[in-house]
Design brief:
With 217 residues, the protein is of the alpha+beta class. The chain has 2 domains: 67 residues, no CATH class; 90 residues, no CATH class. Helix content is 44%, strand content 17%. Strands 1-4-5-6 form a 4-stranded antiparallel β-sheet, with no helix packed on it. Helix 2 crosses helix 6, helix 5 runs antiparallel to helix 6 and helix 5 crosses helix 7. The longest helix is centred in the last third of the chain and has 17 residues. This is Transposase for insertion sequence element IS21-like C-terminal domain-containing protein. InterPro entries: IstA-like_C.
Length: 217
């Protein structure tokens, strides 16, 4: 290796004379792109569909596309960072989906879950995906979609995604259909842990005193 480096030494020295000083600041390592959020609750960029919160439907977003992530802006405000997805080797579109972005829309139309092109990417953990397959066989499409959407909503709204997945795995092992009422009770707040809030109403006469002070000033 030393002999090889010595052999290329003159060429390296010649190139070194032409090198410019490094910039004082880091250069831009992203590409900036404008996208519009469609009625599907997301946008497509480089053959990858990304979901965003449904409140952004119809908005035009500025996206900084890095090698490993997307920083999403509206105006000058950064809204979120998304993991960058990649299209398939065969040109098939990829999907980067967060169920929390679309769950509110799905609750209005649960049957939409059945036909989502990114459905498999929607489920945050394997037990959710496997449970949906089990529900389709056990209770039919309509009820399966309704139960599954409620399970995803519960995971999001009650911040119990991992723990709920554990219960779903137990139901799968026993070939049971999850009981939504039981799970809602299991993941509802414990009344004993809720703080007691006491609101003391003040006398309206104090406002008269404030008015008098203002007039005196």
């Amino acid at each position: 290796m030393t002999a090889r480096n010595r052999r290329h030494g003159p060429a390296i020295d010649a190139e070194r004379k032409s090198l410019q000083p490094l910039p004082n600041m880091r250069t831009t390592d992203y590409e900036e792109v404008l996208v519009t959020v469609t009625s599907s609750g997301g946008f497509t960029l480089r053959k990858v569909f990304y979901t965003v919160p449904s409140r952004l439907i119809g908005h035009r977003l500025r996206v900084r596309l890095y090698d490993d992530r997307l920083d999403v802006f509206i105006g000058g405000t950064r809204l979120m960072t998304l993991q960058r997805g990649r299209a398939g080797a065969n040109g098939k579109h990829g999907h980067v989906v967060d169920y929390r972005h679309v769950i509110h829309s799905l609750r209005r139309k649960p049957m939409a879950l059945r036909g989502l092109v990114y459905r498999d990417s929607l489920f945050p953990r394997a037990p959710y995906r496997l449970m949906f397959e089990h529900l389709l066989e056990a209770v039919g499409e309509k009820k399966a979609c309704r139960i599954m959407v409620e399970l995803l909503a519960m995971a999001h709204e009650r911040a119990c995604e991992a723990e709920l997945a554990h219960f779903l795995a137990e139901d799968l092992a026993a070939r049971r259909v999850p009981c939504l009422a039981t799970l809602r009770t299991r993941f509802s707040p414990d009344p004993a842990t809720l703080p007691e809030v006491v609101v003391e109403m003040v006398s309206l006469s104090i406002y008269d005193g404030l008015i008098e002070q203002g007039e005196a000033a």
